[in-house]
Amino acid sequence: MVHNNNEQRLKTKKTEIKVSELFRQKLEGYEIVPDGSVKKKLMRKLELQEFMHFNLFRFNIWYLALITAGLITGLLLLISGEPQQEQVPEVAVKTGTEIIINKQPAILHPAASNNLRSLPASTVKPVISKTPDNTIIENSADIKERTITQNTVSEAASKDGLIEYQKNENSMSEKVLYREGALFEASATNGCSPLKLKFHKIPALCDSCRWTFGDGGHSSESDPEWIFDTEGEYKVELTVFCPQKPPEKSFILINVYPRPLARFEITPENPAIPGEPVTFLNFSSGASVFKWNFGDGRESDTFEPIHSYGKPGKYNVSLIAISDNGCSDSVKIDNVLSGSEYYIRFPNAFIPNQLGPSGGYYSARTDESSVVFHPVFSGVTDYQLRIFSKMGIMIFESNDVNIGWDGYVDGVLSSAGVYIWKVRGKFRNGESFIRMGDVTLIKAVQN
Amino acid sequence: MLSDRQIIEGCSGHKRKSQQMLYDKYSSLLLGISLRYAGNRDEAEDILQDSFLRIFSNIDEFSEKGSFTGWLRKIVVNTAITHYHANKKFRHYVDIDDFVSTETEGTSFEENLFSSEELYLVMNELPAGYRMVFNLYAVEGYKHKEIAEILNIDVNTSKSQYSRAKDSIRTKLGVLRKLKGSYSADGS
Question: How many angstroms separate the CA atoms of A114 and A132, rounded?
C-alpha cells in the first residue's frame, strides 16, 4: 500500500503544490449555498433591528411608543373626567408628619416623626398621642395585625433553579397594619428586596385617588400592588380627591433592605476521596451569618469551612447567607465534586519507530511524533490497557498508565492497520471507567 | 439583474428588495469564507448572519474606490474574528488528534487529489486558534504581525500556531491520501 502511494506521488509530482497554496486555490473563492432558513432568520432580525431604530418614514418602536403614550393619556383623561360623588366621612388621619383633621393640617412633633421612621413595622406605636389634639389619639387596640404568609417573592426566585432565596420567618413575615381612620393600609413597612407590597385604600373614601411610591412609580388604582426592586427608603403617598374639598394626603415610609448574595467555590476542584479535605471558598457579599450543608448530613456555620468527605459520591452542597437585617440568599451546587477534570483519552493513530522497540515508555513532552500508543489522562490510579488484533487475539497488555504500546510484539513490528484497544481503571475520585476503541498503526513512508 | 452599484444604493436606502438581492448574490461566497473560520456549519451560518447585519448597517461606509467583494470579504473575516474572541473561553481544550504532528517540512500534495469539501472538513477539525491563524495567513494573506494584532497574541505565537496548524493539516491530508490511495488501488 505504501509502495503504491509512492508510485502515485511520483506520477503526479508535477502538479504538486504546497499546503497553503492548496487551500488558497481551492477555498479562496469557493461558494457554498446557505440554507434557506438562514435568509429568513436574517430578514426577521433585520426587520426587528429596523423596528428598534428611529426612521422618519417607517413604522418603528418610537412611533409605537408615541401611540401607546397617547392612548394612555386619553384613557387617563377620560377616567379623571368623571370623579365619583361620594360622601366623605369625617376622618382623623395619622400620616407620618402631616395630620389632617377635618381638613385642618397639623404638624406632628419632629422628634415623633423621627421616631416613627426608625421603628420597624411590628413595633409601630401610635406616636400621635404626642400631638396637641387629644381627639385623634389612636388606641393601640385599634391596630389590628393580620399576618399574611406572603411568600410570592421567594417562590418566584426559587424557580431560578440554582439560587433559592430562603424565606425568613422572623423579621420579614408580612403584616397588615390596619388603622382605623387612616387613608390606607400597607401589607408591611419593611422587608428584603425585591419587596412586593399590597396597599389598600380605605374604601369609604372618595374613589378618585393617586398613589406615588417614592421610586418614580405611581398608580390610580384603589388597591395597588407594588414591587420595590432596589434597597432604600421609600415614601409611599396617597392623595384622595373628593369633590368640593381640598385633596387629602397620607404617607408611610417603607424600608427595603438589600438582599445578600450567596456564592461559593470549592478547592481543590478534584480532591482525592477519601482523604483530601475540601476548602469551601466563600464569595458571598452583604451577609454576616452563614449556614453550610455539605450534603453528607453534616453542617457548619463558619465563614469558610474545610470539610472531608468519607467516600466518593454525589454531594449537593448548599450555603445560606443571612444579612444583619435578616435578609437571606442561598445557593446550592449539585454534585459538587463532579466538576472533576479527570479524563482519559486515546489517539486514533500512531506511527511506531521502525528502528526498534522502545519498551513503551513515553513522556507527553517528548512523544510529539506519537511513536507510542498511549492516552492523555488526568487523575488515573488503576489502569489496564489491552490491545487486540483484528482476529481478536490479545497482543499487548499494560498495567501502568505510563507505559503504552510501541507497536512491537515479541520484538517484531506489527503490520500497519487497525487494532482494537480496551482499557479499564479508576480515577482518583473512585469513579471507575471502561473504554474501547480502535487505533490505526501507520508506518512512516521511507524515502 | 441590477449592478452592484444599484444594489448598494438600494441597501443604503434600507430597501428590503435590494438587501435580498445582495444576499442572494453574495451569500454563497461569504458562507464559503465563514465556513473556513467556523468549527461547523451552524457556527458558519451564525457568522454569515451577523456579517450581513453588519454589511447592511454599514453599507454607507463602503467607498466606491475599493472592490465591493473585498469589502464584503473583510467584514466576514472580522465578524469571524469577533465570534472567535466571544467564544474563546469555551475552547480551551486541544483535541487529541492534534497531538499527532509528524512529517517535516517540504511535504506537498497533488492539487487535484482533494475536493474542496474535504479541505473544509480538514479545516473544521483544527482547533479554533490554529484555524484562525492558518486562514488569515495562508488564505487571506495577512502577515504574522497583523495576525498577532488582530487576535491579540504574540507574533511568535502566530508563527508557531501557523506551523503547527500546517503540520496538523499535513498529517490529516496524509491519512486522507492514504485512504484514497488504498481505495483507488482496490478499485482499479
Answer: 18
- Please answer whether residues A262 and A329 qualify as being in contact, where contact means their C-beta atoms are separated by less than 8 angstroms: yes
Q: Is B166 exposed, middle or buried (0-12, 13-18, 19+ CB in 10 A)?
A: buried
DSSP A329-381: EEEEETTGGG----EEE--SEE---TT---TTB--TTT-TT--SB--EEESEE
Query: Which 3 state secondary structure label does DSSP give A273?
Result: coil
Secondary structure percentages of chain B, helix, strand, coil, to 5: 75, 0, 25
For A165-187, the pLDDT digits (tens) are: 333 333 333 344 445 446 788 88
Contacts of A343 in chain B (CB under 8 A): none
Which of B52, B107, B123 faces A42 most closely, judged by CB atoms?
B52
The partner residue sitting opposite A345, judged by closest CB among B29, B96, B177, is B96
Q: Are A13 and A447 in contact (CB under 8 A)?
A: no
Kindly report the CATH number assigned to the domain that includes residue B38: 1.10.1740.10
The answer to whether the complex's ipTM is over 0.90 is no
Residues of A in contact with B185 (CB under 8 A): 1, 4
- The answer to whether the Cβ–Cβ distance between A376 and B100 falls below 8 Å is no
Distance CA A380, CA A403 (A): 13
Summarize pLDDT for A8-32 with one digit per residue, the tens.
444 444 455 677 888 888 888 888 8
Q: What is the pTM of this model?
A: 0.39
Mean pLDDT of chain A: 72
Count of structural domains within chain B: 2
Q: Write down which residue in B38, B64, B89 finishes a domain.
A: B89
Closest A-chain CA to B25? A33
Taking a C-beta distance cutoff of 8 angstroms, is the pair A282, A264 a contact?
yes
pLDDT in tens, A332-343: 887 777 655 678
Sign of the Cα pseudo-torsion (B37, B41, B45, B48, in order): positive
Report pLDDT digits (tens) over A251-301. Answer: 888 888 888 888 888 877 767 666 678 888 888 888 889 999 988 888 888
Question: What SS3 state is found at A4?
Answer: helix
- Count Cα neighbours of A130 within 13 Å in the Cβ-side half-sphere: 15
> Which domain, by its residues, includes B165?
93-187
The mean-pLDDT minimum among A58-67, A264-273, B98-107 falls in B98-107
Of A4, A15, A346, the CB nearest to B110: A15
Q: Could you tell me the domains of chain A? A: 92-257 (2.60.40.10), 264-338 (2.60.40.10), 343-441 (2.60.40)
A440 vs B contacts (CB less than 8 Å): 175
The residues, ordered by sequence, that sit 6+ positions from A102 with a Cβ below 8 Å of its Cβ are A90, A92
Distance in angstroms (rounded) separating the CA atoms of residues A372 and A395: 15
